[in-house]
Amino acid sequence: MDTKTPLLPQSESTMLRRPSSRKLRRFHIAAFIAVLGLFWLGWTWQCPDPSHNHGRAEESKVPLEIHIMSKCPDARDCLQNLVLPTMQKVSDKVDFRLSFIGKTTDEDDGVQCMHGQTECLGNILELCAAHVYPDPKIYLGFTMCMSRNFDDIPKKDLVEDCALEHGMDFDKINHCVSQDDGAYAMDLLRKSVERSAEANVTKSCTVRLNNKVRCIMDGGDWSECEGGSKPEDLERDIKSLYDASRGWAE
């Protein structure tokens, strides 16, 4: 600012400039600094650094990762019956990630998808949606919308309708898909597929909680769902892990 506000109220500044002994002047200045120091110390005690608290909150979130294929009916049912209902209750407690299943090769731009190249493009569209709109509450809705009509993936009308339904800009998603002649989006898919492979995930849909398999839907049936396959079961486990990470466990 161009105008500087004096540290002392005007009346006190005037008082300090009046003829007085040096000792008296020094006493007033020292007293003011002492009061200011005590005020600042009290403020820091009562108001910790919010960025420090935010960092701790982020660290305590529970990893929840869903591995899917965009044109897979099991992915649709898994999202609709387990993942979305759970996220509606505990999205603030999880570090959510959506990954895709495929196979890296030296052909087909480096990735093959079980349901063909249209599925690869569907995977890319959903990855780009997550990249452009990183809030899971937004991009998960878009992914669910696409999954409900997975036979139509990647038709433009479907993508535009799902983007509009969830307040997303289709042009931004399309830019991600076409950036660098498609190389950028293809790299997103390749890294996602490699991540699933490193986790030894081969079935869509696989739900991993805290970096461990929590549930698998394959062929319309749940398996490896220790603790249950209902949203309230997954919600309970997430809350338990979250509380434990923050030292709240009994």
UniProtKB/TrEMBL annotation:
Q: Where are the transmembrane segments?
A: 27-45
Q: Which organism is it from?
A: Delitschia confertaspora ATCC 74209
Keyword Cell membrane among UniProt keywords: no
Q: Where does the protein end up?
A: Secreted
Q: Which UniProt keywords apply?
A: Glycoprotein, Membrane, Secreted, Signal, Transmembrane, Transmembrane helix
Q: Which family does it belong to?
A: Belongs to the GILT family.
Q: Recall the taxonomic lineage recorded for the source organism.
A: Eukaryota, Fungi, Dikarya, Ascomycota, Pezizomycotina
Reply yes or no: does the keyword Transcription regulation apply. no
Pfam families listed in its UniProt record: GILT
Instruction: Give the protein name, as stated in the record.
Output: Gamma interferon inducible lysosomal thiol reductase (GILT)
**Superkingdom assignment:** Eukaryota
Q: Name one GO cellular component term.
A: extracellular region
For molecular function, the Gene Ontology terms on record are: oxidoreductase activity, acting on a sulfur group of donors, disulfide as acceptor
UniProt xrefs under InterPro entries:
Interferon-induced_GILT
